[in-house]
Amino acid sequence: MIKHGLRLLAGVLAAAPVLAGSAHAASDGLTVYNTNCSVCHQAGGAGMPGQFPVLKNRIDKIAATPEGKKYLMDVVLNGLHGPIQAGGAAYAGFMPSLKALSDDDIAAVLTYVASLGDTSPAPTITADDVKAARATPKKGPEVQAERNALNAAHPIP
C-alpha cells in the first residue's frame, strides 16, 4: 500500500512541470484568443460582418494611446453592451465580461490582437496594467461612456 502511494506521488510530482508548463502556455495571447475570442471575432481577428467587429488592424490603433489601452482593458474586464460603430459598420452586439481570465491572460490576448495590425512596434499591455484596470470595475453604461469619450478625442477605427 505504501509502495503504491509512493508511486502515485512520484507520478504526480513528475507531471508537475507539465502542468506548470500548461498554465504558463495559457498566457500565450494566441492560445487565449483561440480559446476565448475566436468563436465570435473569428480566426486572426477577422470579425463577422454585422455581428462581431473586426479586430485586425483596429486594436493596435486603439491601443496607441493610454486612454485607448484603458478602454480595451475595460471592455475585456467588464464587457460592452449596446450599439457601436466599428470599422465603418454598425453593431448592436453583446461582448461578455472576461474578468474570470487572469491578468496575465488578458494582457497576453490584448497584446496579441494589437499585434495583428500594422503599427510597429505593436502596442503592448502588461499584467500590471490589467491589474490596475481591474481595481476599478465599470458597469455597461460607464464602458459605453468611456468609448464615446475616447471616440471624441481619438476617433475609434
From TrEMBL:
InterPro entries (UniProt xref): Cyt_c-like_dom, Cyt_c-like_dom_sf, Cytochrome_c-type_DH
Extent of the signal sequence: 1-25
Keywords of this entry: Heme, Iron, Metal-binding, Signal
Record bears the keyword Ribosomal protein: no
GO MF, one annotated term: electron transfer activity
Coiled-coil portions: none
Occurrences of domain Cytochrome c (ranges): 24-117
A Pfam short name: Cytochrom_C
UniProt-annotated stretches for the region Disordered: 135-157
PANTHER family hit by this protein: BLL4482 PROTEIN-RELATED, CYTOCHROME C DOMAIN-CONTAINING PROTEIN
Protein name per its UniProtKB record: Cytochrome c
Native source organism of the sequence: Acetobacter cerevisiae
Lineage of source species: Bacteria, Pseudomonadati, Pseudomonadota, Alphaproteobacteria, Acetobacterales
